[in-house]
Specification:
- The complex is a heterodimer.
- By secondary structure, chain A is of the alpha/beta class.
- Chain A folds into 2 domains: about 1-95 and about 170-270, P-loop containing nucleotide triphosphate hydrolases (Rossmann fold), CATH 3.40.50; about 105-170, no CATH class.
- Chain A is about 40% helix and about 20% strand.
- Chain A has 11 helices and 9 strands.
- The radius of gyration of chain A is 18 Å and the shape is globular.
- By secondary structure, chain B is an all-alpha fold.
- Chain B has one domain (about 35-255): MetI-like (MetI-like fold, Orthogonal Bundle).
- Chain B has 10 helices and no strands.
- The chains are: A alpha/beta, B mainly alpha.
- The interface between A and B is medium-sized, with 24 and 20 residues.
Chain lengths: ~280, ~260
């Protein structure tokens, strides 16, 4: 239900995004021998990972395993000590968008101008960027709040503003760093559905960092697990549950099987049970 | 916080304590028969306030003009200095010590020097008020400019915002609450600075400020008048503080910026 309304909303954005709805609109990410150290500690070491265009990848792992570091490297917010990052179809990385752990809104700006910020920084004229921002705000269902300030919004609403802000540049690579971790379960599931709808409509490549196995399986095409301190990939599992996924998915045998597989793999690799 | 009139529970305790303390002091001084030139009774101070109200009013106006000008200069120059120091680490290391100088300089010692440079009168008094009040503005604004949320800085970097754009659209607005905290501290200091300035440099052209009034009354051994002047001086500092508080509260509400707590 949500997925279809979101599809309508995104196709309404114009021909560019209609084309983007097709497969292959996303950016392919190729990481080779990637390494990043902080002092003596190797947070990411000799990591190889290929993400095909339009894939929804969940990056799973305990705190401190370098998920955020890896995401920041892909985003270009940090530079690797070793190895290379290639974005195919977008070598300069202009169509990357990043959703932070916190909503990270500018408190002195209304929702409308927060969402329009990326276009503003890109030099889009005021009338045009506000027009676009209004559409995105509608897309995340916040029309009523567009004139409000962040301190007047709930945590879930702030996160939706943050999502709208990330999507306004029509990214072909969307990077999310535990975006809904601080929210209650109900809001979180709602936002997961939102995100899935946006993904299905837009067809961008998504890298989603989370520490929740359930969320990873629910959202992703593929789940990748990182070991702590540059231990590399310990698990790479495809999730072939049919889309759009909904409440029924959460109680389906396939869903349970996937989570079971993840938990087993994790237990084998870390008998102490690092991840809850 | 809403600007509703304060409730009984808010204003009653301080008013009550003031009344009781005044009464105790009045009776105590009367019973102990302390000479007036040493410590006048509150009633005598109130009488002095009334008798000299015209002179006091004029002095307060004088001093508040000087303190306002000093505070304004501090705000403008302090922000400019903070911006300059925020450019990079090297500049900050090289020049921040000079800013600290304003904090540590014994103002009473260099005030006569200012008289040599600026002569007797308002200019020197404003200069003293400025020197005493500028540091909190520099220090707070600078810390605000440097403590921008790293995630927001990343966001601006991700969208390829230049240094100038980031400064205007992120770092300066984010530093506003810090600046207001500095301004609040500076407001009280500006009044003190103006009074110290008057001690050294008043030319009596407009009848003198509150500092001058204190000085003259001491020489005339009119202790009650000294107390009246000191009382007014503290009141002036309080009014300055309250005004700046009001401005900052209005700004915060208008900008939707959370209160920074010192």
């Amino acid at each position: 239900m949500i997925a279809t309304t979101l599809t309508d909303g995104l196709t309404a954005l114009g021909p560019a995004s209609r084309a983007a709805g097709a497969a292959g609109a996303g950016v392919a990410v190729r990481l080779q021998g990637l390494g990043r150290r902080f002092g003596a500690m190797a947070v990411v070491a000799d990591l190889d990972l290929e993400i095909p265009p339009g894939q929804f990848l969940a990056l799973l792992g305990p705190s401190g395993c370098g998920k955020t570091t890896l995401l920041r490297l892909i985003a270009g917010l940090d530079t690797p000590d070793r190895g290379s990052i290639r974005l195919e179809g977008d070598p300069e990385g202009r169509s990357r968008a990043y959703v932070f752990q916190d909503a990270c809104l500018l408190p002195w700006r209304r929702v409308l101008d927060n969402v329009a910020l990326p276009l503003e920084l890109g030099g889009v004229p005021k009338a045009e960027r506000r027009e676009q921002a209004r559409r995105l705000i509608q897309l995340v269902g916040l029309e009523a709040a567009s004139e409000r300030y962040p301190d007047e919004l709930s945590g879930g609403m702030k996160m939706r503003v943050s999502l709208a802000r990330a999507l306004i540049t029509r990214p072909r690579l969307l990077l999310l760093d535990e975006p809904f971790a601080a929210l209650d379960d109900f809001t979180r599931q709602h936002l997961d559905d939102h995100l899935q709808g946006l993904f299905l409509a837009h067809g961008m490549t998504v890298v989603f960092v989370t520490h929740s196995m359930a969320e990873a399986v629910y959202l992703a095409d593929r789940v990748v697990m990182l070991a702590p301190q540059g231990g590399g990939l310990v698990l790479d599992q495809r999730v072939d549950l049919p889309r759009p996924r909904d409440q029924d998915t959460r109680v389906s045998p396939g869903y349970a099987a996937h989570i079971h597989d993840l938990a087993t793999a994790l237990a084998r690799w870390a008998p102490g049970g690092v991840v809850a | 916080m809403p600007l509703t009139p304060p409730r009984l529970a808010t204003w009653l305790p301080p008013v009550l304590s003031f009344a009781i303390l005044t009464l105790v002091m009045e009776l105590g001084l009367w019973v102990l028969a302390v000479p007036d030139y040493l410590l006048p009774r509150p009633s005598q101070v109130f009488i002095a306030l009334y008798v000299n109200s015209a002179e006091l009013g004029r002095s307060i106006l004088q001093t508040s003009i000087a303190a306002s000008a000093g505070l304004l200069a501090s705000a403008l120059l302090g922000v400019l200095v903070a911006l300059a120091l925020s450019i990079n680490d090297g500049i900050r290391r090289a020049f921040y010590p000079y800013a600290v100088f304003f904090q540590t300089v014994p103002i009473v010692a260099i005030a006569p020097l200012l008289v040599i440079w600026f002569g007797y009168g308002l200019r020197t008094i404003i200069a003293v008020s400025f020197i005493v009040s500028v540091f909190p503005i520099i220090a707070n604004t600078l810390s605000g400019l440097l403590s921008t949320d790293p995630a927001l800085r990343d966001l601006f970097r991700l969208h390829r915002a230049g240094t100038w754009t980031t400064l205007l659209k992120l770092r300066i607005p984010a530093a506003v609450p810090h600046f207001l905290t500095g301004l609040r501290i500076a407001s009280g200091l500006a009044v003190i600075g103006a009074i110290v300035g008057e001690f050294v440099a008043d030319d009596y052209s407009q009848g003198g400020g509150i500092g001058t009034l204190v000085l003259v009354s001491i020489k005339e051994l009119k202790t009650d008048k000294v107390f009246a002047a000191v009382l007014m001086a503290s009141l002036l500092g309080l009014v300055f503080f309250a005004l700046v508080n009001l401005i900052s509260r209005f700004t915060r509400r208008h900008w939707h910026i959370a209160e920074t707590r010192e």
